[in-house]
Amino acid sequence: MPNAIRIHKAGGPEVLKWEEVEVGEPGPREVRIRQAAAGLNFIDVYHRTGLYPQRMPFTPGVEGAGTVESVGEGVEGFSPGDRVAYAGPPGGYAEERLIDADRLVKLPHEIGFDTAAAMMLQGMTARMLLRAVHDVKDGDTILVHAAAGGVGLILCQWANALGATVIGTVSTEEKAELARAHGCDHPILYTKQDFVAEVAKLTAGQKVPVVYDSVGKTTFMQSLDCLRPRGLMVSFGNASGPVDPISPLVLSQKGSLFLTRPTLFHYIASRAELEQSARELFDIVRSGKVKIEVKQRFALRDAAEAHRALEARKTSGSTIFEV
Predict the structure, then answer these.
(1) How many structural domains comprise the chain?
(2) Which of 68, 111, 159, 303: disulfide with 82, CB 3.0–4.6 Å?
(3) Which residue ranges does the record assign to the Enoyl reductase (ER) domain (predicted)?
(4) Using one digit for the tens of pLDDT, what is the confidence trace for 192-235?
(5) Rounded CA gap, 195 and 246, in Å?
(6) Looking at the domain assignment, is residue 132 inside a domain?
């Protein structure tokens, strides 16, 4: 039987268990995939800890790529042997899995399994942030937190390709160099510099129209101070912990600001939205304007080790599990 990581109760990385699983045959409109690689994302930590509750037991992982083994009744457009990828419901930390066919996309032959597993969730998230949540245009200046992370590196490159000037926060000199090499015009070492003051200096006091913040608790309030009047605060993650509740009056006091907490799956809910998002991602990666940097690789059975590294901020770029 194939193996998978299973979680039977919420907790630390130690709850990630390597177990044999019965996958079964695909039901109506389902596809069975033999996975080649799976991606690691902070949402997996939120699922593991119970911040985003799941029905137990379950297999985490919302990003992966592999080959279709079999299809269920009513499936159209996919056949055994097809190369596919997804960003979808949990179940990715597995050698084989079932998934609804409408959550899959075919993988262009130019894009390898490892690259796909590292970019589907992160890349479509970047596309959502830059094209749907806020339409970044040539000449804009934006602030990206965690600029050397998986989403951060893609965001910086894609925004740069759109003609934007990118200010990014990072924790180390090494991450600053990595971000700079991937489209971040002005890396800020937040461990040594006041990023609010630096943003004001870099924009001649004008500040920025949008902040992309996946860090959460430790950066949220200061991020509001980086926005110009009527600017948009995009909180799309909580790597440092959930943001404390705030009064809407704070948004008024700081310049009639806008606040959103987008989730990718609301932006790819329909088949048409998913296909458009994936198509734009594939196109920009194939163009060479966005390079997917797989910086860490783990065996799937070592998922606990990978989670510890992610939570300790010892990772940069994308991380994948080799299945």
Answers:
(1) 2
(2) 68
(3) 11-321
(4) 999 999 999 999 999 999 999 999 999 999 999 999 999 999 99
(5) 21
(6) no
Q: What is the 3-state secondary structure (H, E, C) of 254-306?
A: CCCCEEECCCHHHHCCCHHHHHHHHHHHHHHHHCCCCCCCEEEEEEHHHHHHH
pLDDT at residue number 88: 87
Virtual CA dihedral for 51, 54, 58, 59, nearest 10 degrees?
-50
Q: Is the domain of 216 the same as that of 308?
A: no
Domain that holds residue 169: 138-261
Say how far apart CA 230 and CA 253 lie, in whole Å: 11
- 8 A C-beta contact, residue 66 and residue 77: no
Specify whether 116 is located in the same domain as 215: no
- Is residue 195 domain-shared with residue 231, that is, in the same domain? yes
**Cα–Cα nearest to 267, from 158, 154, 126:** 126
Same domain, 66 and 116: yes
CA atoms of 40 and 150, how far apart (whole Å)? 9
User: Are 82 and 52 found together in one domain?
Assistant: yes
Residue 274 lies in a domain: no
Confidence of residue 292 (pLDDT cuts 50, 70, 90): very high
Residues 241 and 292 in one domain: no
Tell whether 97 and 212 lie within a shared domain.
Answer: no
Give Cα 151 to chain centroid, integer Å: 5
Q: Report the alpha-carbon distance of residue 283 to residue 265 in Å, rounded.
A: 20
The answer, as to whether pTM is greater than 0.90, is: yes
Whether residue 67 is contained in a domain is answered as yes
In a domain, residue 201? The reply is yes
Residue of 151, 103, 97 whose CA lies nearest to 124: 151
User: Residue 239's pLDDT is what?
Assistant: 85
For 219, the token pair is 């950066």
For 114-137, what is each residue's pLDDT tens digit?
A: 999 999 999 999 999 999 999 999
Angle between helices 113-127 and 271-286 (to 10 degrees): 110
